Amino acid sequence: MYLGLDLGTSGLRTVLADASGQILASEEAHYDVSHLHSGWSEQDPQEWINACEKTITALRKSHPKELAALKGIGISGHMHGATLVDASGEVMRPCMLWNDTRSAKEAAEFDATEGFREISGNIVFPGFTAPKVAWVANNEPEVFAKIHKVLLPKDYLRYWLTGEYFGDMSDAAGTSWFDVGARDWSDELLAKSGMRRDQMPDLVEGSAPAGMLRAALASDWGIEGPVVCVGGGGDNAVAACGVGCFSEGDGFVSLGTSGVLLAAKDRFSPKPESAVHTFCHAIPDTWYQMGVILAATDCMNWLAKTLGSKPAELSAQLGDTISGPGSIQFLPYLSGERTPHNDSTIRASFIGLSVGTTHADLTQAVMEGVAFALRDNLEALKSTGTDLKRVLAIGGGSASPYWVEMLATVLDMPIDLPEAGDFGAALGAARLAIVGDTGAAPKDIMTGPKVAKTVNPRKELSAAYNEAYETYRALYPAIKAITK
Description:
Layout: E1 2-7, E2 11-17, E3 23-30, E4 42-43, H1 45-62, H2 64-68, E5 72-77, E6 83-85, E7 95-96, H3 104-111, H4 116-120, H5 129-139, H6 141-144, E8 149-151, H7 153-162, E9 166-168, H8 169-172, E10 178-179, E11 184-185, H9 187-192, E12 202-204, E13 209-212, H10 215-220, E14 228-230, E15 233-234, H11 235-242, E16 251-255, E17 259-265, E18 277-280, E19 287-293, H12 297-307, H13 311-316, E20 329-331, E21 349-351, H14 359-383, E22 391-394, H15 401-411, E23 415-418, H16 425-438, H17 442-445, E24 451-455, H18 462-482
Parallel strand pairs: 1-5, 5-14, 5-15, 9-12, 16-22, 22-23
Antiparallel strand pairs: 1-2, 2-3, 4-7, 6-8, 10-11, 13-14, 16-17, 17-19, 18-19, 20-21, 23-24
Helix pairs in contact: 3-5, 11-16, 12-14, 14-15
Catalytic activity: D-xylulose + ATP = D-xylulose 5-phosphate + ADP + H(+)
InterPro entries: ATPase_NBD (IPR043129), Carb_kinase_FGGY (IPR000577), Carb_kinase_FGGY_CS (IPR018483), FGGY_C (IPR018485), FGGY_Carb_Kinase (IPR050406), FGGY_N (IPR018484), Xylulokinase (IPR006000)
EC number: 2.7.1.17
């Protein structure tokens, strides 16, 4: 048996799978995010441990015999977080999360420093780990002075599980301390930001052993034999393992809290100025590129909360089929934006509101704004030489037929919808554990899900959506010019 842990921003999902990757059970536990100031986003790592204990306790109750036969654990986690521990392994401050943008000044300084883009293959975004730690150095020097290790969120959870400091290539690639082409920490980039290699965890590939489950935990959970904990990976890389996306030309679009358009790559081919992320995959000798928008379903959640409704209720007002773009434009920059703007200060806007605007009009505008932002991501990926012909849709937003059809039309490519079932990051984590324990080839374990339906672009509406997209593209520089 194998566990896949998916450490998300708002909760932990744990799945129990057999050696074929068939999921037998799944449990979830949720926690909160703290926003003390504008641009701040923090979490207490103890919440991750509490969530893990809660889900394992539930699995032990429902599947005691299966859990007792556990052989391996894989972990997926939200990237870029800064979890700072002292020499005794104690967390010194709340973890600064991926969508924490307070370090915009430090990020800009690093990004302007020779070597960062060239070695890391990426812009230094405010959400990345290195500028966050630099912010701590500038604002909390007493904490910075005591840093023994900087751990990414899933690697702190692994530390609790194993008592050992390990990380993996795919997660480390999002720190701005990593040589993504060489798949190793960069001593030069560490030195330029006042850090040392010994303050980083040792690195392994996603399916390689990264410690053994502590005996005390194994006993508490009723596990009979030794359990290996593998490297795991950053959430998008591990989600790609869950949907079989690791060969050149494979891709997926994720309509989750954030929005992602990801393409697997068989070589390292960065283009930092595009604001496309170029990271190591969780599979050896493989990379991926992705465009990221900071708010996708988060935009719908915000709108629903503001209107006193629920996202599904708002979506239902639009039906299942698109009929063309609306008259209102929405810029989905609730928390700033990454691809293609790298702008932590820009904020969301509605353009074209009138006295007759309805809830349905606002919902359509929000969905279109997210779709157009993902079109921005596609254009950025194209500029690097990436060529996607079709993608798989995952994430909560993919449950909306209207939104998926709109996205297929805006991106001008077929979108495959998988059959209902468990897949994604939790399954990908379990698959990495299976490969690590059994030595199976990734391609034999990390197969794609069966496609339930393919949604094709509505060609007769393409011209109208292209025209609306061009208007959308013109809005960012215009809004930026008056909000500096």
